[in-house]
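Let us work through a complete example step by step.
Step 1: write down the sequence.
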Amino acid sequence: MRMPLRAALTIAGAVLVSAAPALTSASASAVGARATGTFFYHSPDSGDVEIEDPDNGECRLLLQGATSAANRTDARATLFLDRLCEEPAGLTLNPGEARTFTSPLPHSVMFG
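Step 2: predict the structure and record it as tokens.
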């Protein structure tokens, strides 16, 4: 027994419509999401620096490296040794954590 084309299209459309809210909410939370709060760090040459409400997943440069940092955002901050967030430093600051660093200094951070 073959299903008429119109009935098949109606069923397919209903499936897509019912899945759309789940797809939309998942995409919205990943794309354009921001960490709320401020990431503070101290740079040997630039002094105290702040990063306000950083985008999750975006690599942020830490000028001349960071000798200390305090994560006052609502997202995890992963630190990297290079300037492009490619060489992990093995350091993560959860929300509310602070830490002092010695050589080698982290030179970039990514949130989320």
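Step 3: interpret the result. The chain has one helix and eight strands.
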